[in-house]
From TrEMBL:
Pathway the protein contributes to: Nucleotide-sugar biosynthesis; UDP-alpha-D-glucuronate biosynthesis; UDP-alpha-D-glucuronate from UDP-alpha-D-glucose: step 1/1
Annotated EC: 1.1.1.22
Protein name, UniProt field: UDP-glucose 6-dehydrogenase
Oxidoreductase recorded as keyword: yes
Gene3D superfamilies: Cytochrome c1, transmembrane anchor, C-terminal, NAD(P)-binding Rossmann-like Domain
Length: 407
């Protein structure tokens, strides 16, 4: 089957690779000419484990272009960013649908972008000759290829039975396939992200209490996570969540609800707690003008170079405003910060190092290195991940919700 994927970011590119894996011919369209040229030469525009190999393996089935082809099936994977008022900006999605309609008025159009509940139905009303479906994407950055190849479920939101069957074949998997209407598929996507964000904010609140009462949140998370009704995932306390999706999806959902006169109290609270969590890390740093802070890890999570809504960047901005000297290090992400090529250089002469992203090499920084390079070996672990936490040597260690280790 020949499929066209529009937008070659994390979702579009990884989806295209998945379809090519299944021996479909895929035409990938993107406005970004440079990105298309690089992809045509087998160069991945994003840092993702296994992506270059996957591109090479599927080279003969993937075409990259800036021109929209005539196609029977279009998958939309363009961005749906946050507007200033918190709502979801659908302008790219709308522009793409309009173009598809002008090229192939009876095409099947599958939404992979995250769009607010009701969007697909509205588009169906505006373009009755197109056949729409909503198939939300659940991959995580950093493990995108693996997640795409081993999904937990595929949600197919379509009224058109024939299209639903085509999509069941197209996204063939051993995981459960759930057939629903498009609005339910859209809400399922937002509910999943919101629930994960609630779990993170929940454990971050417990972490703050653990600091007060002298408990260890890591052990609490382990203890509660053993209950299968709770589960161990997404109970890692730290500097809070960031990334291209949780913050903007929560804003979109809570804004949509508010516009309908409804308050999503739990989800709104998760967002407030996340904001407070960054302030909590800032308070642990105890910033003052002239202090030199080294931020270790800048991407919003390990395994990616994505800096969208990265907590490290938000922290850097606040520190810089307070007159603090900030140096940074990240193995993949490139920023405008005073970014160094190595951990050694980033922490050299620093008063304090703060772990913001749990990359393997950052988790493994030795106490000896910190003592040798830093002005004073003080480590705030914003991800509770440091490998030497129980043998810190002369390092003054402070995690989030776990007893300090001071020598
Ligand atoms: P992205 O920003 O990485 O990529 C979007 C791509 O679309 C860009 O390459 C851009 O040039 C292209 N584009 C924009 N307008 C276009 C147009 N009119 N025609 C052709 N190309 C166009 O985005 P992403 O992170 O892949 O996210 C895409 C959607 O998927 C969003 O709705 C997001 O919420 C959702 N999503 C993302 C993830 C993730 O992990 N990043 C996971 C699940 C769902
Ligand atoms: C998240 C979801 O996990 C995906 O299922 C979803 O498809 C995607 O959003 C999306 O819609 O874009 P992603 O943002 O790539 O994926 O990464 P996560 O692993 O979910 O991490 C998000 C943030 O939460 C990171 O900043 C991470 O550090 C933080 N986090 C995660 C915690 O602070 N604690 C945890 O226990 C887990």
């Amino acid at each position: 089957m020949q499929v066209t994927v529009i937008g070659t970011g994390y979702v579009g590119l990884v989806t295209a690779i998945g379809l090519a894996d299944a021996k479909h011919d895929v035409i990938c369209v993107d406005l970004n000419k440079e990105r298309m040229e690089r992809l045509s030469n087998g160069i991945a525009p994003i840092t993702e484990e296994g992506i270059e190999e996957a591109l090479q393996q599927n080279q003969s089935r993937l075409t990259f272009t800036t021109e929209y082809p005539v196609s029977d099936l279009y998958l939309i994977a363009v961005g749906t960013p946050e507007r200033a008022d918190g709502s979801c900006d659908l302008s790219a999605v709308e522009a793409v649908v309009k173009l598809i309609h002008s090229i192939q008025p009876d095409a099947a159009v599958v939404m992979k972008s995250t769009v607010p509940p009701g969007t697909t139905e509205k588009l169906q009303t505006v373009y009755p000759s197109l056949r729409f479906a909503m198939v939300p994407e659940f991959l995580r950055e950093g493990t995108a290829i693996r997640d795409m190849r081993n999904p937990h479920r595929v949600i197919i939101g379509a009224h058109d039975q024939q299209l639903a069957e085509t999509l069941t074949d197209l996204f063939k998997t051993n995981a459960p396939i759930v057939h629903v209407d498009p609005t339910t598929a859209e809400l399922t996507k937002y509910a999943a992200n919101s629930f994960l964000a609630v779990k993170i904010s929940f454990i971050n609140e417990i972490a703050r209490l653990a600091d007060i009462v002298g408990a260890d949140v890591e052990d609490v998370a382990h203890g509660i996570g053993l209950d299968p009704r709770i589960g161990p995932a997404f109970l890692k306390a730290g500097a809070g969540y960031g990334g291209s999706c949780f913050p903007k999806d929560i804003a979109a959902l809570t804004t949509l609800a508010q516009q309908q006169g409804e308050h999503l109290h739990v989800i709104e609270a998760a967002d407030r707690t996340n904001e407070a969590q960054l302030q909590y890390v800032l308070d642990k740093i105890n910033p003052s003008p002239g202090l030199h802070v080294a931020l270790l890890g800048l991407a919003f999570k390990p395994g990616t170079d994505d800096l969208r809504d990265a907590p490290a960047l938000r922290l850097a901005e606040r520190l810089t405003k307070m007159g603090v000297t900030v140096t940074g290090y990240d193995p993949a992400a490139k920023t405008l910060l005073d970014q160094k090529e190595s951990i050694e250089e980033a922490v050299a002469g620093a008063d304090l190092a703060v772990i913001m992203t749990e990359w393997d090499e950052i988790k493994q920084i030795t106490p000896e290195l910190l003592v040798k390079q830093m002005k004073s070996a003080r480590l705030v672990d914003g991800r509770n991940c440091w490998a030497y936490v129980n043998e810190p040597g002369n390092v003054q260690y402070e995690g989030i919700g776990r007893p300090n280790k001071t020598f």
